[in-house]
Amino acid sequence: MAEPLSVPCRLRTKGSDLSLARGCTMGDMNTLFDPCQVGAWTLRNRVVMAPQTRNRAPGAVPTEAMARYYRQRASAGLIVTEATAISHQGQGYADVPGLYTPEQVQAWRQVTDAVHAEGGRIVNQLWHVGRVSHTSLQPDGGAPVAPSAIRAQTKTVLIRDGVPTFVDTSEPRALQMHELPGIVDDYRRAALAAIDAGFDGVEIHAANGYLLDQFLKTGSNHRSDAYGGGIEQRASLLLEVVAAVADAIGAPRTGIRLSPVTPANDVHDAQPQALFEHVVRRLAAWDLAYLHVIEGATGGERELPERPFDYAACRAAWRAAGGRGAWMVNNGYDLPLAQAAVEQGADLVAFGRPFIANPDLVARLQRGGPFNTPDRKTFYGGGEAGYLDYPTLSDGDTA
Ligand SMILES: Cc1cc2nc3c(=O)[nH]c(=O)nc-3n(C[C@H](O)[C@H](O)[C@H](O)COP(=O)(O)O)c2cc1C
Questions:
Q1: Of 72, 201, 308, 387, which has the maximum CB count within 10 A?
Q2: Active site includes 210?
Q3: How much distance in Å is there from the Cα of 51 to the middle of ligand 1?
Q4: Residues near ligand 1 with C-beta < 6 Å?
C-alpha cells in the first residue's frame, strides 16, 4: 500500500513554472537540502544518487559489498540503483544484477535493509537493454532483441579472462508483435519483485538508448506496425510499461528516466522536442513520483548544438497536462548548477560520478566541498578498490 500523500503545495520558484507539484516544501525558496515530498516518499533532501552500473554482481545476484556501497551513500535524499535487468533477455552487460529470480530478490533485501537502516530511500532502476547486448549474455546464445534489426554502433562489457573488456554489441533481431505483451509483463513482475525485495519503488529506465528509448526514436525504430511510424506509435510500448508498473505497485512509487537527445548507445530522433512533449503529456495521466531527465549527452556535454532541446518547454508541457510529480534533472551538475536548478524549479538533482567518489556527497555539498575525484578505471567491474574505499569527511578526509 502506498503511504498517504501530502497535500500538494505550490512551487515557489524564481522562474515562470509556478504550476502545482508535490515535490516541494512550503518555504519561500527551496534549496538542495530541504526535505521534499515525492510520490509516496518524504525525502530528507533533494540530492539524488543517479543510477550507475558497476558490474560487481557475479551471476546477476547482488552481493554484500553492494549493500555496503549503497549504505555508505544512504544520506542521499533518494538512491536510484544501478540498472537492473528485468529478465534474462534484458541483460546486456557482464555482472549486472537482475530482479527476476527468487535468489536475486532475496539478495537485494540486504541492500534495501542497509539503506533503510540509515534512514535512506532507495528505488530500483528497471532495465531491458534491447539491442545493446551480446549473444553470450542472451538466453540460449540468441540474438538480442530490438524494435528493428538495426545494430547499435556501440560497445558492451564482457568479462574475458577475468578482465572487463569492451566488445561490439551483437546483431539484433526485430521483436514480433506477439512478444511485446511478455516484455510488458516482465516489467510488471520486476516491479512487484522490487517491492518484495524492500525497495521504496522503481525507476523505469527509458533512457540512454536501451529498449524503451530504442522504440521511442526514429533512428532505431523502423517498424510499420502499431509500435512504429508516428510519435504515438513509437511511444506505445513505453506507455504500456508505465501503465503495467503503475497498476502493479502504484504510480506514486514509480518514476521514469528519459534522455531526449543523448547520443548514448547510438540513438537519435528526427523530432525530439515533439516526441518528448508528447511523451510527458501522456505520462501526466499517472500520478507518477517523478520524471528524471538527462540533459544533453549522458556523461558529456549538457548542450548539443546539433541536437537542441528546450527542457523548460518540456517541463511546462508536462505541468500543463497535469503532471504533478517531481522534476528531476541530471548530467554534469556541480553545486552552483544544482542550486540554480532548484531555484529555477527543479525538485530534485541527480548526481552520478560525484556519488561514486564521495559517499558523503550531501555533507560535502552542504560544506561546499572538498570533493574526491572518481577513478574511471574502477567504474566497471573489479573489487572493493574504487568502490568501497573512497574516504568521507568523518574519516578526516580533506581530499
Ligand atoms: C559508471 C557509470 C555507470 C552508469 N550506469 C547507468 C545506469 O545503470 N543507468 C542509467 O540510467 N545511467 C547510468 N549512468 C549515467 C549516470 O546515471 C548519469 O546520467 C551520468 O553519469 C551523468 O551524471 P553525472 O554528470 O552526475 O555523472 C552511468 C554513469 C556512469 C559514470
A1: 201
A2: yes
A3: 6
A4: 50-53, 82-83, 125, 205, 207-208, 257, 294, 298-299, 330-333, 351-354, 379
